[in-house]
Design a protein that fits this description.
Elements: H1 5-15, H2 18-34, H3 38-44, E1 49-58, E2 64-73, E3 81-88, H4 93-109, E4 115-122, H5 130-144, E5 153-157, H6 163-177, H7 198-217, E6 225-229, H8 235-244, E7 248-254, E8 257-260, H9 267-277, E9 287-289, H10 291-295, E10 298-304, E11 320-326, H11 334-342, E12 347-348, H12 350-353, H13 356-370, H14 376-401, H15 405-424
Parallel strand pairs: 3-4, 3-5, 6-7, 6-10, 10-11, 11-12
Antiparallel strand pairs: 1-2, 2-4, 7-8, 8-9
Length: 428
């Protein structure tokens, strides 16, 4: 029996956040080009499964604090679900649902045998000690045991989580099984089965996609003036990779604000400074500016590697970049997308541009399952091959259908998931 409008409206309320509404709106725009059955489209608007948990943690001062935690699995039709774990004070069920949906399209677009998932704990990670973060991670992992597993759902690092977080998750899961299970998570330390290229994969992948786009546009990457918003694991690596390709990185920013030097910044020196001081605060390598001012700088390539919802209808008309690359998830609103498209500014969409991380996570998972590991050069070459194939399919589809690159990327991902759902049918 088809869902009633009232039932659909009630289901929508469960996830109702601006980010989830944006993910669904993007999906609805792409569906008109994807030519998939209405019943399949309705199924894909909602996650398959969502888990909400309470995470009690003993604090260093003896208090007991309960944190809310989440894990959302959008689709498992192509294989186990895959997605990051984030610790942030803004984590919500709707945010996790949106990011899980985008991960489904990303995995499908890259032709990885995964569906999308996302999870996290609502907390302020900067206020927690290392011991508190470990207890939080281990208890959260214990709460997820009914829904995660190497063939069910494989977590990875995300905002404010890292290799150490994944090591704690892997150990907690393994203790429940009685033997080491390195394939339960990706993004682990190399000593327990991590990939030698996982740390830099997302940032390097961003630049691989940017370079491919430059080739298609007839630009020389080494002649471009680049601005990078975000100087963490994605933005910092992307800035360094651009610098090493000969491009001029004229501005970068992090939580402390931005730095601008028209002659180009010494990115390796900035990375060393950020490692030593925790941020770029106090650095005088260029003139200081706000993140908002940085977005509107005159440049050729703007890399968005911070957070969602950075380019909006309000600031999109003032952007002076010739091309935008989304290293973060959901940094451009629907209204801003329309404005940039009308202005002829190509936007390299997140589900393609930041897919390097999940692609190398897939390589790590495969290596853990087979207990056979590849070299850095082998992994980098395999990543370049995957991203180039996906980019060419997206670019050609956009030209053929007269759509934006984002719509083309979504269409490519949605079609493969839809075909799998049609082939498998509905059980029972």
């Amino acid at each position: 029996m088809a869902s009633t409008p009232e039932a659909l409206a009630q289901a929508q309320l469960e996830w109702d956040t601006p980010l989830y509404r944006m993910a669904v709106a993007q999906f609805d725009q792409a569906v008109s080009f994807a030519d998939i059955p209405d019943g399949i489209a309705e199924r894909l608007r909602f996650p398959e499964r969502a888990l909400m948990v309470s995470v009690p943690v003993r604090m260093d001062d003896g208090r007991r604090v309960v944190f809310p935690g989440y894990r959302v699995q959008h689709s498992s039709v192509l294989g186990p679900t895959k997605g990051g774990i984030r610790y942030d004070h803004d984590v919500t069920l709707g945010e996790c649902a949106a990011l899980a949906m985008w991960m489904t399209w990303k995995c499908s677009l890259l032709r990885l045998p995964y569906g999308g998932a996302k999870g996290g704990v609502r907390c302020d990670p900067r206020s927690l000690s290392s011991a508190e973060l470990e207890r939080l991670t281990r208890r959260y992992t214990s709460e997820l045991l009914p829904v995660i597993g190497p063939q069910e759902d494989i977590p990875a690092p995300d905002m404010a989580t890292n290799e150490q977080t994944m090591a704690w998750m892997m150990d907690t899961y393994s203790m429940q099984r009685g033997y080491a299970v390195p394939e339960i998570v990706t993004g682990k330390p190399i000593s327990i089965g991590g990939s030698v290229f996982r740390h830099e994969a997302t940032g390097v992948g961003v630049v691989m996609v940017v370079a491919r786009a430059c080739d298609r546009l007839g630009w020389r990457l080494e002649e471009q003036r680049c601005v990078v918003q975000g100087f963490g694991n994605v933005g910092g690596i992307a800035a360094l990779e651009l610098h090493e390709h000969g491009a001029r990185v004229v501005a970068v920013s992090d939580v402390s604000g931005g730095l601008n030097a028209e002659g180009g910044l010494d990115v390796p020196a900035l990375q060393a400074y950020a490692r030593e001081h925790g941020s770029l605060e106090g650095n005088e390598a260029g003139s200081r500016l706000t993140n908002e001012e940085l977005l509107e700088l005159d440049c050729d390539i703007l890399v968005l590697a911070a957070r969602e919802d950075q380019i909006t209808a309000e600031n999109a008309p003032r952007l002076r970049a010739r091309m935008i690359a989304e290293g973060a998830n959901g940094p451009t609103s629907l209204e801003a997308d329309a404005i940039l498209n009308a202005r002829g500014v190509p936007v390299l969409p997140d589900i393609l541009t930041n897919a390097g991380g999940v692609t190398v996570s897939y390589f790590e998972w495969v290596q853990d399952l087979g207990r056979l590991f590849w070299t850095r050069d082998e992994i980098r070459a395999k990543l370049a091959e995957k991203l180039s194939d996906a980019f060419d399919r997206v670019w050609d589809l956009a030209e053929d259908r007269g759509t934006s690159l984002r719509t083309a990327a979504l269409v490519a991902g949605i079609r493969d998931v839809s075909e799998a759902l049609e082939a498998r049918g509905i059980f029972p």
